[in-house]
Write a structure and sequence with these properties.
This protein has 245 residues and is of the alpha/beta class. The chain is built from eight helices and ten strands. The protein folds into two domains: 116 residues, 3-Layer(aba) Sandwich (Rossmann fold), CATH 3.40.50.2300; 121 residues, 2-Layer Sandwich (Heat Shock Protein 90), CATH 3.30.565.10.
């Protein structure tokens, strides 16, 4: 699959130069371009690119603000700064995968993006309300995303896992939730983040109980699953499926 790139620079000629170089190198797809910070943040949230080529000198937002918002809304994206000036801000350098001055050879930027992009994890995220219809929307989201990622053989197992986790969020946590798919080198990870109390617990196998079977099924289908505390509030229930060989 090509490395999906978002180009962010307020100079059209710079974006065109980078876009052309990526095309000639091969292995990249430019999914969007932005000429200011607000547009860059919106496009990062919409596309969840593998790599972001970011100019810090944008007309509307400080580079640090753009970077922090991209990190928040598209945490799987790798960011490489492509700037006309060296940055004194240590925080910026600590939160990017690379920093290239525009005076450097363009080939250096492209090779760095190829290296960084090969380590990126592809992500897709959907926010859903506390409603019985949300489980069906989560299933459609999973089906469409796996089709886009050419992972149709995982669809049946992923739908079962996503359905169970979504139903737990709505029925037991009584909460809206976020479902996130992450494609890593060897696994597909499914995260469901909710904001309710309590944690799901697998129950012993029973012929009479209607509850607790879902987690036993998830345990049987996946390579690993677990429950973590969310970064802000609530919890993350996650599961991983091995990629087809």
């Amino acid at each position: 699959m090509p490395i999906r790139a978002l180009l962010v620079d307020d100079v059209d000629d710079v974006r065109r130069l980078v876009r052309t170089a990526l095309r000639f190198h091969g292995g990249f797809e430019v999914v969007a371009e932005a000429s200011d910070g607000a547009e860059a943040v919106r496009l990062a949230q919409d596309h969840h690119p593998d790599v972001v080529v970011l100019d810090l000198g944008l007309p509307d937002l400080a580079g640090r603000d753009v970077l922090s918002r991209i990190r928040e809304l598209s945490p799987g994206s790798k960011v490489v700064v492509y700037s006309g000036a060296d940055a004194d801000d240590r925080w910026v350098r600590e939160h990017v995968e690379g920093y290239v001055l525009k005076e450097e050879e363009l080939d250096y930027l492209i090779e760095l993006l190829a290296s960084v992009g090969s380590r990126a994890s592809r992500q897709s995220v959907l926010e859903l309300p506390k409603a019985l219809t949300s489980a069906a929307l989560a299933r459609r989201f999973v089906t469409d995303t796996l089709f886009d990622w050419s992972l149709e053989p995982l669809t049946e197992a992923a739908l079962i896992v996503a359905s169970e986790l979504a139903a737990n969020a709505v029925t037991h946590a009584d909460s809206p939730f976020r479902i996130q798919l992450s494609l890593n080198p060897s696994t597909l990870r499914i995260d469901v983040v909710d904001f309710g109390a309590g944690t799901p617990e697998p129950m012993p196998p029973s012929t009479s109980s209607e509850h607790g079977r879902g987690l036993l099924l998830i345990d049987a289908l996946t390579t690993a699953w677990g429950i973590d505390r969310a970064a802000t509030a609530g919890k993350v229930v996650w599961a991983e499926l091995a990629l087809p060989k």
